[in-house]
TrEMBL record:
Domain of life, source organism: Bacteria
UniProtKB keywords: Membrane, Transmembrane, Transmembrane helix
Organism, as annotated: Actinomadura alba
Protein name: Redoxin domain-containing protein
Chain ranges passing through the membrane: 53-80
Amino acid sequence: MRQSGDPDDYGLPHVDIVVPDDARELGSEILAYRREERRQRRRRRWRRLTAPITRYGPAVPIIACALLIALVSGTVITVFGPDPAPRAPSDPVAQRPTALPGQVGGVLPDAEVAVPGHRKRLIDLRPAVLVIVPPGCGCETTIDELSRQTSTYRIGLYLVADRRDTDVSIEQSAKEMRKLAGAARHAVAIVARDDDALLAKTYRASGLTAVFVHADGVVEDVVRGLAPGQNLEKRLQSLQN
């Protein structure tokens, strides 16, 4: 093996390297060189793949992650969250019910209630469970159970404050009803304002009272004094017929 540090005929600076006589002695250096080349190629491919994202700085990856989280969250809420809205009425209103309006077997009274954003006729809420809520009922558990049972059949769940003989202001009553609606974890509970307490008077509400309304507007049943653990599945199922 010859040292290349011998005097150079061209006056170039001496370089202290060793040139092997057998090229096979360079095997380890060649392998290291090839590994480094492969590493560099991987880096170049990765930079080409990430260039569209990193071109505009760190903001784009952050936005992309936020959009992905929002998409996943929306999917989870859609699949596992409460039913966003009750089924819209498609059946015509019963023309020949077996009882007068306002009675069990008859259609709902011809009146209006205020729901968020506008007023609606009672008959347009069908099929539904209209829950008449006394002041300070403390019935969050029962409302949550109702939301679970109504969600199975996509039947509207409406909460109506009983404003008969009460000193509670409309604003305070509305606040209590919104809080109560928030207890419904399985389906949307819609607050309907009945300032004249027509439903409570018509159906003689006592305690927490539920009015079960068919898709054709006929009242199937009225259940007074609702309590936690009450199974209403059969009544709800009958509203589908």
